[in-house]
Write a structure and sequence with these properties.
The chain is an alpha/beta fold. It has one domain: 3-Layer(aba) Sandwich (Rossmann fold), CATH 3.40.50. Strands 6-5-4-3-7-10-11-12 form an eight-stranded mixed β-sheet, covered by helices on one side. It is globular.
């Protein structure tokens, strides 16, 4: 049974509680305040790579959270180069090229705690055009609404690509079925989902929401810019 919520905060709390109460969550704990890891994350990852454009991709952006670790490992196995934002956008984006990683180290390279040896920091202007994106989520809807843990990093990462002139590309998320809810409010700066994948099904969004054109600079404070140095880099790049 799902529900409609009058705030993203309420939707998040519902999902975190449901995953915990139904013992569907996995390490790391506590899941509250995180993009929650869930039982069946591997099955959801395999299911995503059965559909285009993810199965045919050359370049992906994949979030660094635990439930998407199986996706990162599977991407390497498939010969896909992926770009992963550093946590909290402290240092921009990292490139993971399977041609430069021994296959026996794919699992290590896919794990946030042990990936540094295989990561190549990439300046913003060197990011290639992506084929698709994978984002972590707390709560989602079948109509393509998404909310993360409330800090806006995935939305900003998408907006950075738009500021760099990249066209909007399909965005998928992998979640447990209890993370699918009926509704919650959406902001115009939110990342629009094209596909939601659970261990049991693929939900193709019929009419994805419009993609943001770029960063809503007026919503960011000087502290935000200090906390996410990549945004200062972007401003400097745009002034060249």
């Amino acid at each position: 049974m799902t529900a409609a919520f009058n705030s993203k905060s309420a939707a998040r709390q519902h999902v975190w509680d449901a995953l915990k109460d139904q013992k569907l969550a996995r390490f790391p704990f506590p899941i509250h305040g995180r993009i929650p890891n869930f039982k069946g994350a591997e099955a959801a990852a395999r299911r995503l790579f059965e559909i285009a454009p993810w199965k045919d991709a050359k370049f992906l952006k994949i979030n660094p959270d635990s439930p998407q670790k199986p996706l990162r490992e599977e991407a390497l196995k498939r010969g896909i180069i992926y770009f992963m934002p550093t946590p909290r956008l402290k240092a921009g984006f990292m490139k993971f090229d399977p041609a430069r990683i021994p296959p026996e180290n794919f699992r290590q390279a896919a794990a946030l705690s042990t990936c540094q040896e295989w990561a190549e920091e990439v300046p913003l202007e060197a990011l290639p055009r992506l084929d698709a994106i994978v984002a972590g989520s707390v709560a989602v809807t079948r109509t393509g609404k998404r909310c993360g843990k409330g800090e806006g990093y995935s939305d900003i990462e998408f907006a950075i690509l738009r500021e760099l002139g990249h066209p909007p590309v399909p965005v998928a998320t992998t979640v447990h079925s209890v993370q699918l809810v009926d509704d919650f409010p959406r902001d115009d700066i939110d990342l629009p989902l094209s596909v939601v994948v659970t261990p049991e099904e693929v939900v193709t969004v019929a009419n994805p929401f419009p993609a943001p054109e770029g960063i809503a600079w007026d919503r960011l404070t000087d502290q935000d810019l200090d906390d996410m140095p990549v945004l200062r880099d972007l401003q400097a790049l745009q002034k060249r």
